[in-house]
């Protein structure tokens, strides 16, 4: 048992380092994009790792501030007027989530189509790659946590790349190429599993290389040196006493205002949907295929959000970027998520000056690798081979998320997924076969009003003088509208010299009056 824990700890600690490096710039970037203090994003990252990780039933997902909620948070702070008022809505939103979890509302997470989940993962992978290109080229006008197509700097994903190409920084390009080389090297099994080299993840070596190269620039090649917006920027805390100045507490003075409750419910519902989507996706990526209890996850998120709101943090959800980095880095248990939260808390207090030397371009390299693993070309091929009913919802979800944002894209993908479910249901619920002028009409499983139009169309095409058997043995439920369609067909059959035999019905099909 001790050996098993030791082996898991080795993998989990290594994964937590990678997740920490991924989470650090995203926590800061999401806070800035949300119009909130930078420290609020770091607080949410710490709470998502330690608090949510402790209560969660997921083995591999990681929680933190979510890019999908940036617009909601930005609008909420603006409409309420102050950040403390927003924090109070977050505390209540967490309690609402807690209630949803206790009511077992998490079961709704089982109804997301697989093709849409795969599309979400692939889209996020592509977005990570596209969004990191400007940072890799040293053009850091947009925050690293902004994953929406329309950006806060009035550009979009593609125009930002164009500006980055025009106004690139050679120093950043060298750093990202070296970092990518290190990451690719450490992806090789010989290195990754080596007793010495494999102890420290390649992402950490990539970050160290970026810091050292930029120090070389500063001392010997000043025109290529990176500073200011090109580096990680963590609020500096020189003592524990100063920490209190960076923490904001909630203001509940608007709790009686209807708009207060609208925002609280909005945060709870959207946060819950994003969490359920993420844990479903993370479970599919988990090599051990473990299943996360969705209602327990809502309870964990509710506790986390209320706690985050009480100490000045942003809303937290399960986040696919950090979760996928965690999984692909070899995490075995949820200890990795908790350790990443501890690393955030300890290191931003202990070594902020060192962390503030990390170039965003080398962190972009880390996210390039995460993005590629989510959006490999082989994924497109494998989904295509499963048929159009899987590929179309998949590709629509990918495109919709790329050009809107996560939640809108998921909604569009769900609509297409539902269309193909209904279309498939049409074909499976009513089956008509013909042989030598004899027709067999089979009603299978549940036949609802949704099957009315195709059934009427199929029956109208049966030629005069045919012999028809209507079989309902396999139907567990036949909607009243379907019964009327069959009764109408029987009523007019004598006019067309159609002979009808009915089988397997537990009620008598009669002519309509």
Automatic annotation (TrEMBL):
The chain crosses the membrane at residues 17-35, 42-62, 82-103, 115-133, 161-184, 196-217, 260-282, 303-325, 337-355, 362-384, 390-422. It is a multi-pass membrane protein. Its main location: membrane. GO terms for cellular component: membrane. The keyword Membrane applies. The keyword Transmembrane applies. GO terms for biological process: transmembrane transport. It is found in: Membrane. Residues 9-382 form the SLC26A/SulP transporter domain. It holds the Pfam family Sulfate_transp. Keywords: Membrane, Transmembrane, Transmembrane helix. This is Sulfate transporter family protein.
